[in-house]
Amino acid sequence: MLYSTLRALFHFIFRLIFRLKVIGIENIPEDKPVILCANHTSNMDPPLLGSPLVSRRVHYMAKAELFDLPVLGWVLPRISAFPVKRGGVSKESIRLSLQLLQDNQILGIFPEGSRSNAGGIGKKGAASLALKSGAVVIPSAIVGGYKPFRKMTLVYGKPLDISEFADSGSSGAEEATNRIMEAIRELVKKYESK
């Protein structure tokens, strides 16, 4: 209930204040596990990435420290966020992510890892989860920044096939990550110029 209400509220705000234009929503399958991989520019990225999706809920990893904050710690689990420990392997987060994907859910991941790494090297987590689960990878781009009354665009790209890297271990996950990051950068570049 809280997720649906906040999703609708955020979508309304993004469309009204940031003149949000959504492109490619038809690229997201209705009945398959999906990983939305997007560039990370702001703390507003998670609600933006999932706000246009009326029929499906997007689940997110959030740094574990946020769950210790009084109000946010109560809200986050109710809007489909779950904690991840930063700086190491979080086995519980990986297990939960794989379970969500096995249940045909959508996982929103920002492969850059943090806003300070915008446009940088991606982390292998999204690619590893996609390769292990067989989830559809949708490269996504957030373009235009969060400037009131200026046009902002959210692009869901075409599904990205990374299956060729499935049996290549860690080096395959790294190559798949590079392919995902390249697809995200191409979308950003394409729509920044429009």
What does this structure look like?
With 194 residues, the chain is an alpha/beta fold. 39% of the residues lie in helices and 19% in strands. It has a 7-stranded mixed sheet with strand order 1-7-6-2-5-3-4. Helix 5 (125-133) crosses helix 6 (169-192). The longest helix has 24 residues, at 169-192. The chain is globular. The model has no long low-confidence stretch (mean pLDDT 90).
How do you describe this structure in short?
With 194 residues, the chain is α/β, with parallel strands linked by helices. 39% of the residues lie in helices and 19% in strands.
Key attributes of the depicted protein:
globular; 7-stranded mixed beta sheet; alpha/beta; 194 residues
Largest sheet: 7 strands, mixed
Mean pLDDT: 90
Strand content: 15-25%
Instruction: Give helix % range.
Output: 25-40%
How are the secondary structure elements laid out?
Blueprint: H1 2-17, E1 20-23, E2 34-38, H2 45-50, E3 58-63, H3 70-78, E4 81-84, H4 91-102, E5 106-109, H5 125-133, E6 136-143, E7 152-156, H6 169-192
Parallel strand pairs: 1-7, 2-5, 2-6, 3-4, 3-5
Antiparallel strand pairs: 6-7
Helix pairs in contact: 5-6
